[in-house]
Structure formats: C-alpha cells, structure tokens
C-alpha cells in the first residue's frame, strides 16, 4: 500500500514560472504557484486555482527538486522566490519548510489572509509578505493590487510612501 503523505509535508502544486510579477521594481522572480483557495473573491484573476485539483499533490522534497532545477537554469537572473496561488497558506508548514531552505534568495508570499491570521513562523521567516483579499472595487492598478492589501518587509508594515518608492532596503 503506498504511503500517504504527511499532512504537514504536502502541497497542491500548480506550476513554476519566471516573471516580474506585479512590480518590476521587485526584480525577477521564480514564481511557485499552488492551487486551492477557500475564498471566492469577485473578479479573481485566477479562478481555476481555487480548485485544488487544478494542481498535483506533491511533497516538499519533490517541490524543492523542481525549484532547484529551475534555479540551476536561471539562478543568475532570479532576485526573488514568490509563493502565490490560490492560497499558499493552505499549506503553511510545507511552505515554511521551503522558505527556510531558500534563504539565499528574497522570499515573497502573497496571501488572502489578513496579517493577524498569518502564523508567526511565516511572518518571521518570509522577507516580503502581502496580506489581504483581492477586492475588485478597490483595484489600485499598482502593487499591491487592491488598496485594502498590506505589504510587510521583514515583518514591518510599509507605509504608502514606502510602497511608492520601492525598492527600499528589503533585506
Ligand atoms: S484570494 Fe486570490 S486566488 Fe483566492 S479567490 Fe481571492 S483573488 Fe482568487
């Protein structure tokens, strides 16, 4: 009988891509996209990713192999590793394990959870954290994508002025 994955070690993984994500001032990112999101935000840009079955269930070792392989092809280009979805914090322990193995890169996590609901171990170890749901009526046309969302660097909330002057000292 095949071994079932440990609950804290699996992730519904969708894809990896190399991108400038929302703000080119943050540089070039390796994007780790997971599937599954409990919210149904109106105007969601990635509604297919709300369904976990869009992705594939893999464990953190398999995902690290995929990330390392992609980095071996393009590590000179990459400034950041970005975790988004879907909702990366459906898999908080698995995501945290991966973040801690990538500490030579800037790590960025986008979550629909509010800051107070994000586990402390994530807040303490991710470099940049964007929190809050996407709200179509509050679209900003810049980073972050809706004005209710907050951005934290090294667990410190950025002011609007700091957001308008990215990149600031991020590490
Ligand atoms: S949190 Fe993000 S992925 Fe989830 S429904 Fe809202 S916009 Fe879509």
Q: What is the beta-strand fraction? A: 15-25%
Can you count the beta strands?
Answer: 8
Which architecture does the CATH hierarchy give at level 2?
Alpha-Beta Barrel
Named CATH topology: TIM Barrel
Largest beta-sheet details: 8 strands, mixed
| Computed structural class | alpha/beta
What does this structure look like?
This protein has one domain: TIM Barrel, CATH 3.20.20. The mean pLDDT is 89. It is an alpha/beta fold and 171 residues long. The protein has four helices and eight strands. β4, α2 and β5 form a beta-alpha-beta unit. An eight-stranded mixed beta sheet has the order 3-1-2-4-5-6-7-8, with helices on one face. It binds iron/sulfur cluster (SF4). Iron/sulfur cluster binds next to loops.
Topology:
Layout: E1 10-19, E2 29-34, E3 56-59, H1 60-74, E4 80-84, H2 92-100, E5 106-110, H3 120-125, E6 128-131, E7 150-153, E8 156-157, H4 160-164
Parallel strand pairs: 2-4, 4-5, 5-6
Antiparallel strand pairs: 1-2, 1-3, 6-7, 7-8
Bound molecules: iron/sulfur cluster (SF4).
The site of iron/sulfur cluster has 14 residues, from loops.
Compact summary:
This protein is of the alpha/beta class. Helix content is 20%, strand content 23%.
């Amino acid at each position: 009988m095949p071994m079932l994955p440990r609950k804290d070690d699996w992730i519904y993984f969708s894809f990896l891509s190399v991108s400038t994500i929302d703000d080119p001032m943050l540089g070039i990112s390796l994007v780790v996209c997971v599937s599954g999101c409990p919210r149904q935000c109106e105007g969601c840009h990635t509604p297919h990713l709300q369904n976990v079955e869009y992705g594939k269930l893999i464990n953190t070792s398999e995902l690290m192999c995929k990330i390392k392989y992609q980095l071996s092809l393009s590590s000179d280009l990459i400034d950041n590793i970005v975790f988004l979805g879907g909702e990366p914090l459906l898999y908080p322990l698995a995501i945290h394990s991966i973040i801690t193995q990538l500490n030579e890169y800037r790590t960025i996590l986008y979550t629909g959870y509010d800051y107070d609901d994000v586990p402390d171990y994530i807040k303490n170890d991710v470099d940049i954290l964007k929190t809050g749901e996407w709200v179509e009526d509050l679209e900003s046309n810049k980073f972050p994508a809706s004005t209710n969302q907050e951005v934290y660097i090294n667990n410190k909330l950025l002011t609007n002025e700091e957001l308008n002057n990215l990149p600031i000292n991020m590490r």
